[in-house]
Amino acid sequence: MTEPLLTIRDLHLEGRTDEEWVPIIKGVDLTLDRGEVLGLIGESGAGKSTLGLAAMGYCRDGVRVSQGQVKFDGIDLFEASAGQKRALLGKRIAYVAQSAAASFNPAHKIIDQHTEAPVRHGVMGRAESVEDGVDLYERLRLPNPEEIGFRYPHQVSGGQLQRAMTAMAMSCRPDLIIFDEPTTALDVTTQIEVLAAIRRIVKDFGTAAIYITHDLAVVAQMADRIKVLLRGEEVETNETRAMLSDPQEEYTKSLWAVRSFKRPAKPAVAEGTVPVISVRNVDASYGPVPVLHDISFDVHKGRTVAVVGESGSGKSTAARCITGLLPPTGGEILLDGEPMAADYRKRNKDTLRRVQMIYQMADTALNPRMSVGQIIARPVQFYLGLRGAAKRKRVNELMEQIELDPAEYYGRLPSELSGGQKQRIGIARALAAEPEFIICDEVTSALDQLVAEGILKLLARLQDELQLSYMFITHDLATVRAISDEVVVMKDGRVLDQGPKSEMFRPPHHPYTDLLLSSVPEMDPDWLTHLLETRGVDNIGDAATDKM
Amino acid sequence: MTLALVLLALLPLAWVFRFAGQRLTRRPYWRDMTFAVAYGYLLVAVLLAWLAWAYLQSMSADAEVANTYFFLRVAINLFIGFAIAAILFRLLGRAVGPAWSRKAFRQMPLTAAFGMLTIIVYVVVAIFAPLIAPYGQEQIIPGVAANILPGGDPALGGNPDFPLGTDQIGRDILSRLIYGAQNTVGIAFATTCLAFVLGGTLGILAATLGGWLDNLLSRAVDVLMAIPSLIFALLLMTIASVWAPRLGIPLTVFMVFIIAVIDSTRVYRLARAVAQNIVVMDYIEAAKLRGEGLRYLVFKEILPNATAPLLAEFGLRFCFVFLTIAALSFLGVGIQPPLADWGTMVRDLASFINFAAFAPLAASAPLLAAGAIALLTVAVNFLVDWMLHRSSGLKE
How close does chain A come to B291, measured CA to CA in Å? Predict the structure, then answer.
């Protein structure tokens, strides 16, 4: 091709905060040829999504273009009239959003939303478009392609909805699709299906795409070229293979190195030691619906037990049983060999103190109206009875332990902190109680990889210093590999497999463990291709049907 | 008919307007302008022109023509006057005071400044009523005619000593308005506070504890809400008016409780809904797992996060309570004479409204108290809107 499909030249975007305009994108250039897939990666706040939308000539409210040009097939998108843009968007440029569940209109059937664009743009008639939709669903390996479109969005699973959205973006056979983190919200096993489907269809139709993600392993599977963004500026761009094998810039190298964090293996626990927490044959149910069946595992002093599984596997429910929020219907939970009361209201203050929890979403786990100091000080006062200067001193110590400067952060509100800092405050609040056992519920899954690595290192260090025991709930096997001593694999409320990490990651596996392990994307750009070959492509669509 | 013709004539004009704009400039704003927007611009222009013309008409020598546009003129004068007062007030706020208040004033829209100014004026008037009012609220001034017209111009039947005139039995309307602020606003404020203490506490408790308490309270509130509130209040007030003399408690106390209970149902609903969204947050779970008691949960964890919506509701609820009191007084069961009250004043002077066509000054007598009610309601709403906007903006 002579002329690139999309050219962005020296683009500057500004966003409005309180009273002034601050730059979000600071001079980014980008070219995209027909049929090429460009991966756009960076941390949250790097401006990936803003740049993706700008490639469609669109700015969110409160964002404006201060300089630069976006040209799509010779048309300047910021100069184009509303009418011109209307003719392009949806027809020649399409967008796939991160959360399909939030992007579909729940009041209309999927197929009605699918046909809207082609009919409006006059690409095809309604009947024809419905037929084409069924064809696309089939290509995307959706189960029951004939019938799935006639359901409402809430009647299909997240992974299927994400594929239906890709089909919708394809409905007019656009020249360019922008994928904004289309698999971030999905489980690993579902993610594979969506990735494979997207890759196949993009190839089939020769569509150019911009693939936005923060997951390097994912982008390695999808993109021909990768562009790394940092705080609105380009760090580097290169062909995928070259980029992976030989990153030039320090920042890129640090991104690549994140996954290398590993803890040395600990010696086996001596026979006969009393575990800090022992979960024995626990059953639990939400109302009449049973969710946990006969769960048993032990957590020893100074050890980390990782509980792994897809969403809905009962990992978090197990944590709720241990904390006493959901009294189990059968079995018992021992703390240092002593049974705990099933309901947290019946536990005494000391028992409550010894079991603490760190939450996934630091945003909802910290009271937005309390300052950092107040949040950490409360358990110090409540459990240890410290007041005045002694309390303040202890809070300062805790803040130093989590590597936040007390002088600077003591009086801040949670809204004035970054995601990683908020998570650190959550950790400090748990530490303030001087617990023996901490439940970490997906503590890193809402964070960028570099930040998440920092949190994992902090947790590891604290464990060594304070001999803490962790129950680490996660769906990310890279995290498991990094931090755990023992692994518990759960599915549908049952423990399928458990053992020391060294055994779990070495074959032979339980078949489900094997599926989980092999579904974690690797940095190798050929990984997905190999995986699909070994599994046999058609199994993938069926796996989705099984899960329904 | 004329209106329809004017609207039709604007259609081609709007097209010409947009076309001219597109020709003269190459700005995308003109290029992407829809026809409806162009039409809207022209419509506003025509309206403004008509207002200016009507304003001039009201000053015409011909009394009949002038009378027709009298109220429009007053409205425009007031509008401009209030706008200037609000601008000055905002400028003052920006120049004086600590840094935080100056920052707040800088971001404040004019409507909020107007609302704040009006409320401050009302509060000052209500508190210092005995000092400000020239006469007593129930004082029938000897030797003065009843029904002196407002305006204070002897040529038109006014009296400079009584700038807003006198009522049918010769009481000074200005004084009664000032005392009315004390009575009506004071009682409304007390009632709203009571409604919030009652509804807010029960609502948050219901959300926090849940279970049978929540069910019991919610169903009870449903029953109360099912009865039309004004009719219910009327009914209860009628009963109370029999009891009050027997028990020796002023009827006003009954009124405060009756309205507070009826309005607390709405507060309960809101407080419960807001608190329910808060109690599912992880930080509440963390506090519960820490073993915190109910008091800490409610006052330290839930209440601070529910303040913004509750405060906004307080403003709106105050307006409704205020209107209910005025309505009850208008119907004769609210604040009892001889206490001055705006609702009663509107009722007493209501018949003067019939003079509007030929003696607008006479007709404005009942409108004074009505205007006082309307002004406060509008002011509170403006202020609440702004506060809501700020609290929702802070969340992001």
Answer: 6
